[in-house]
Amino acid sequence: MNEAILENKCRKPILLTVLGLVVCVGMLAMPYLAGLPRGEAMPDLVRFIGRFHPVILHLPIGILSLVVFIELGSVFCRDGRSSTRTALFFGAATSVLAVMAGFLLFQGESDWADSPGATRHMWGGIAFSSLAIMTFLVKAWTDSGASAAWFYRLLLLACAGVMIFASHDGASLTHGPDYLTKYAPPSLKPLLGGSAAAAVVEKPAAERLVYADVVAPILEEKCWKCHNEKKVKGKFRMDTYELLVKGGKEDKGIEPGNADKSNIIIRTGLPIDDDERMPPDEKPGLTADEILTIKWWINAGASPTQKLAEANAPAEVLAAIAKRVPAAPKENPAVAEAAAQAETDKRAALQKTVDEVQKAFPGAVQFESQATSGLTFTAVSMRGKFSDDDMAKLGPVITGLVSVDLSASLITDKSLALLAPAKDLRILRLSETKISDAGLDNVAKMASLESLNLYGTEISDAGLQKLVGLSKLKRLYVWRSKITPAGIEEFKKKLPDCVIEAGI
Length: 504
Ligand code: HEC
Hints:
Number of helices: 19
Strand order of the largest sheet: 1-2-3-4-5-6-7
Oligomer: single chain
Shape: globular
Largest sheet: 7 strands, mixed
Bound molecules: heme C
Radius of gyration: 28 Å
Structural class: mainly alpha
């Protein structure tokens, strides 16, 4: 069989066709024969093999994508000799392996049993693999003289379409439904199917609801990843109010009026090394402010519809809420208008200096959005050419910067000193630059910093310690620096809410 497919001109591939169809039928019958996932009842070997699914699945995706590109290329330039048959064979074969491993993974997780998302992904994978087999078979027949080239192209196209759909489904299962859209520009979010939860902040304070606008966003950020319609860990969904109350395998999710008896409070309040603590595996949990807020809401009866303005929250709860959602200055239309006008004026005043900098560095400085006066700067297109002297030319715009990307540029600690006055700076990327621990004295002054990238720098534990005062820091990238796990531990004691990406 192998010689037949590797030779450029095939004999009639009857045997291959029969074999291919048997595999397709086998895959389609598999879910019916095996029944619902049995989770822990499955042998460890099943669960072990299942975990290879995320590794194997990239093979068919890569191979099939390559075939699509080769075929597209052949529309413009025919050399009449090359055939994608062998590539398709490997694409189809690895897709079957991916489906098998995926199926074992599915069988080994009892939570998948009532997850419509997981079932849909399983069928998507089986459909993709069956189409890949069919595409290969039709290609083998056309190569042996049958005239079905158009049918082959049609199948290849269908196969690629189903592949995109199934892989997106799979990614949503593992990373949560908003993985793709979380950091997308707001205008793109609805196009990509993202949730509109982010828009909530904009609501006038008087209209804000305790559950929908305060409690649910906390749960969305910290819990929905594993407790949603696709992933239903502990048979518990938290993505609607009714399901949140209803609870899971073990108990009701909340007990209105009694926070201390509510499972979400019990589970989140456990010590970090307790197996039952939520979220599991030492993932960043609820902050004290978030727990305080949710407890207050439950004790007050856990209303799904009450307005924050009418809920009589005690001052400490209001303070806790304010820390999460910056109060939008929109209670009064006149105030909102004045705020918008102030931004417009600020933009107009900045415009001239921005234009000047723009001349020296085309495209590098931009307003963050149309409604704000915050500026972003990126040296990415200049990389190896951008130095401390260039940084000095940014002079007048520096105080307006909210996001700066200096990755892989020539800058040193001198540039950090120049950046120190950027009091509104939220995002700073310094990866693969020559900065040193000494330079971080200036970074420590940037009180608004939320995300800092130190990937591939010489920064050490001593430098990291200088940053513990940055109370707004949420994300820190230290992969391939001199920072040690002990240094990270020490840092986490001071800033427990900051997620540190240290690589593996
Ligand atoms: C990384 C995945 C993950 C995240 C994030 C997560 N959980 Fe869970 N959760 C699980 C798993 C797995 C179980 C089932 C095992 C268990 O009961 O301990 C579970 C079970 C639960 C249960 C028990 C449900 C029942 O009745 O059996 C509660 C309550 C819960 N989680 C609350 C939360 C809360 C609140 C958050 C957010 C602060 C959260 N979880 C975040 C994975 C997660």
